[in-house]
């Protein structure tokens, strides 16, 4: 039977830089938990399918800063201890529940003991403690496409200097090449935050700043992803060239692209890719399909809320193990019934079969109504699966197996969609994100507005440092490269996000302030000139050990380039 449409999961894997930056509840244990509960189970599922000969394909994003942490020897060693410790805690629970004559809880404790023991065995034996290498092997076999992102998940639309946008993307691309031995074709814009070409009023002079797609095109990236409303709504009606859209972070801005009335109002669909604004024929966008997304995310009918699935929020007071199931929407946390892995596995099979049928139905209906081949990009945070939704990885495995056998659906990857089903229309997307109201509010609001002036000041200071110290070596070169790392870490979208949501408000504010102070201390030392004394050398060594991502970063990637998405001479020499 002829395939009627194509489908790709897009799994966005990201965690903030947490190496040696605290432990539970905020810090490096974020990484350990994600390895144990999400990345290892996902790799095991994908390797199992590959060994079964299932011809699956999907898109797996790994942000550069996450990749740096997964490959870090210190985090690898700490994870081994983490997994072994939790296996031991579960074993202790077995004895505790046996003494209490509680056979149900004893069996669940054994389940977790074996689960963590298998995780540790997989990590060390099946994947050789090299998760990035394991993902690379799947990509080299054509089973997955690994997409990239900005280096530290910087919130690109609110950065005031094009040097920082370029530096975030270029550093991320360079890290990808080092890890995966090829150029990336797909990218996840942090927080799905997009900005078209705009006019900035700076120092009384108008400056046309390219849309983000121009920066992607300069790196050879072919496709990025957006929220549903960004594509389905198109440009908000009435927003024409020259109309004010700011200020954002104190910078007044205007749209820079003229549109016909038809272009301003004609909506798009997530069943098609589109060429984007400033880069027609070069960079395309895929919108997140809302129906398939809501089938998982919806609090009303989403799969993870099923009564049989494990309850995330209730943990054992001694070991921290999660021994209970959801039980139903009205069940109080203290009244949750015990978890039943067998019962949960049956619901996984049911829900995987339902999702396969949903994808087939959606693509068949689109084909019947439009007479054309449709595509579905179904995007999720990877950490939803396994960590938040314990059974989620098994569900993914079942869906991939089912869709691989489908007579109507072509399993594919993001860049293959663009290569094999190229867009036939250019769309000028609105400034947008996945956040509240589709705007920048989640990252720029009354609680976070204090963060942006220091970021903007650091951006300009970095440009000045590059201009003044364009060709240095020794201590000065080492300090400037470390300053570039601190600037990248300062720009992480995670810090304002965590402040806004209140998930780790004080921790995020502290981390932001620390990276800002380190950047300015390094800049002060560089500007003083001359070799470092012993105290200065120790300070630099401590920072280089503490904040060590992107060992090949070149500070000149932040050369001034306002109004250009192409490499300056300094940036070119840096790459």
The number of strands is: 13
CATH topology of the domain at 449-574: the name is: immunoglobulin/albumin-binding domain-like
What structural class do the secondary elements suggest? alpha/beta
C-alpha Rg (nearest Å): 24 Å
The pLDDT mean sits at 92
- CATH architecture descriptor of the domain at 449-574: Up-down Bundle
Within CATH, the superfamily of the domain at 449-574 carries the name Families 57/38 glycoside transferase, middle domain
Helix content: 40-55%
**Total helical elements:** 19
Major sheet details: 10 strands, mixed
Shape: globular
β-strand amount: 5-15%
Low-pLDDT residue intervals, each spanning 5 or more residues: 234-251, 260-265
CATH class of the domain at 449-574: Mainly Alpha
Describe this structure in words.
The protein is an alpha/beta fold and 575 residues long. It has a domain at 449-574: immunoglobulin/albumin-binding domain-like (Up-down Bundle). 47% of the residues lie in helices and 10% in strands. The chain is built from 19 helices and 13 strands. It has helices at residues 29-52, 64-70, 73-99, 103-126, 131-140, 162-180, 212-218, 228-232, 261-265, 290-297, 341-370, 392-404, 414-420, 452-468, 474-490, 494-501, 505-528, 534-546, 569-574, and strands at residues 5-13, 58-62, 144-149, 186-188, 198-202, 205-209, 223-226, 253-255, 274-276, 284-287, 374-381, 409-411, 426-427. Strands 1, 2, 3, 4, 7, 9, 10, 11, 12 and 13 form a 10-stranded mixed beta sheet that branches. β1, α1 and β2 (58-62) form a beta-alpha-beta unit. α2 packs across α6. Mean pLDDT is 92; it is low at 234-251 and 260-265.
